[in-house]
Amino acid sequence: MMNSYVNSGFRMPDILLNQEPLIYNSRIIHSYVQLLKKKYPAVNITDLLTYAGMNVQEVNDQGHWFSQSQVDRFYDRLVELTGRENIAREAGRYSASPESIGVMRQYVLGLTSPGKVYELLEKTSANFTRSAKYESRMLSSNKVQVTVTPYPGVSEKSFQCENRKGFFEAITMIFNHKQPRIEHPECIFKGDPCCRYLISWEKTYTTYLKLIRNYALGVFVLLGLVLMPLLPARALFSVFLFFAILVLLISYAAVQAEKKELNESLENLKDASDQLVDQIEINYNNRLVTQEIGQIINRYNNLSDVLREVVLVLEKRLDFDRGMIMLANREKTLMRFQAGFGYSPEQHQFLQKLYFHLDNPDSKGFFVVSFRDKKPLLINNIREFENNLSSRSVGFVQKMGAQSFICCPIICDNESIGILAVDNIRTRRLLVQSDMSLLMGISHFVGISIRHTEHLEAQKKQLKSVLKVLVSSIDARDPVTKGHSEWVAEFSEGICDAMGIHNEEREVIRVAALLHDYGKIAIPDSMLKKPDKLTEHEYEYVKFHVDKTKEILDQINFEGPLKAVPAIAAAHHEKFDGSGYPGGLRGKEIPLGARIIAVADYFEALTANRYYSDPMPPELVINILEEQVGIFFDGEIVEAFIRYYRNEFLNRETLKMSLA
Description:
Layout: H1 14-17, E1 22-25, H2 26-39, H3 45-51, H4 56-60, E2 65-67, H5 68-82, H6 87-94, H7 103-108, H8 114-119, H9 121-124, E3 132-140, E4 143-150, H10 158-174, E5 181-186, E6 195-200, H11 205-227, H12 233-299, H13 303-317, E7 322-328, E8 334-341, H14 345-352, E9 355-357, H15 366-373, E10 377-379, H16 391-400, E11 405-412, E12 415-423, H17 433-477, H18 484-499, H19 503-514, H20 525-528, H21 536-543, H22 545-553, H23 565-570, H24 592-606, H25 618-627, H26 635-659
Antiparallel strand pairs: 1-2, 3-4, 4-6, 5-6, 7-8, 7-12, 8-9, 10-11, 11-12
Helix pairs in contact: 2-6, 6-10, 11-12, 12-13, 12-17, 13-17, 18-19, 18-24, 18-26, 19-24, 24-25
């Protein structure tokens, strides 16, 4: 399958496997490619790049770098295809032409003049090449010396010397100057230790006007000194007036020309600044993506919630029109759509039913290949691969209206668990290598968030099963009180809702309510099931069940907020006035969860069958609760229970009875 991607650059070049230094920026190759598109359209650029171990996405990515071997292979093949030995210099000059998109133009135009560019060449050259050290020295306002000394271990070729000449010519020509004169007294390909270039260019129109003005002013002063004793005052005034007007006109023309040049420079600086701001914003958004995904991990513990929030972050922060996350099932046989953005309602409905088979080793679908090989794919022209795809995959592509896309595997613990895919259909922005690199980094964080959520859900299921076993063991002990713990938990949750307690604390209280009486497993049946009043000794022994509850629950490895469960469960017999047990806590000293369970437990116990009493009417028990506010119970909690019971519980029970 991967052989089918070679023609679009998905082959890993051998030179990269050998770790050859990457020393030439893609912007250099980009100039060649633009020249080919304009003047040599018969050249197959894709084949040329593939031959050199490059691809279109890397060339379009201004942050990508190539090795000497790649550049050599590219140029050798280019000369064969075009028959032009000096195309390197032509490509350098082309970067200054009006037809060129001008990645180099964009950068250089952000500066003010040819002299300034050459002056800063030592620093700016690092944006294009890491092969040599550049040194520049201004010899005059329109002449500079540039010395290029290759670094040890770098084996440049002669065509690169010519490319530099074209590059230097382009620097001057960008500012609407004529082609400069370049002298080359020293060259490494002639045995010299460096390449030395003397570059000179014509002075600008403004410079000439200033010279004329200065000379005219000098002539004006000299003539004035000479003619002053020779001419009468009227004639002398006329001469002075003529020369004054002439100097003023020349000065005005010079100022206007200089203003025009400054406006052009300012406009160029504005464009460069705008591009820089755009790039800063992109980088800022990319950092925010990983930060916000990390916050999602801490905020949500449900997989569907996590995926929904992650997709919202991707839509908000990344420069893509559409995106989707697909996850594999546990058996790794199917991969299904989970969440996405940018799709129409019709497409979203189609995606909800979409799945891909992962257990077919001959599958050629892009998503399946990316998932199986754990490698990202960047496709800028799907039509090139339609012959390699199944009819189902072609139908999917047509349904989505995709032309190009990036697909990255979501990998966690060295295992593919899904894919992240994005594309552009409205903006038509070309997808490049840096986009794919960014998504690979993001997909790693997405994988971590998914795996973290899966672990949490597994823990919740495990805890739920443990709770079910524990509660069942209590119910099995005594059929009369069977269901007591579930009712206490339900009433406790109702109180939490009425009080607006958040979900996390609500879950802690629910678990504590389910297990609040677990210590009774250590109490003999003769006491628990005794129909008569307990003796003082028996009563003291039964009170021991809260200590036993804590002792047993402390042995369960509760994590996070659930660590409070044993203490809450053990305190449900504390009373608000301090007369309860086991600790004699009073008021707010009693954990909130224990105060809530105390009300729920009391109400359920008095309204249900017991060995020692018949059930009491609920409203009578509510009256007792109100009478015991401040003595046994917290008044705020009793009020919350009454609101819940009368407004929600009774309505729900009435509805159940009507439907039965």
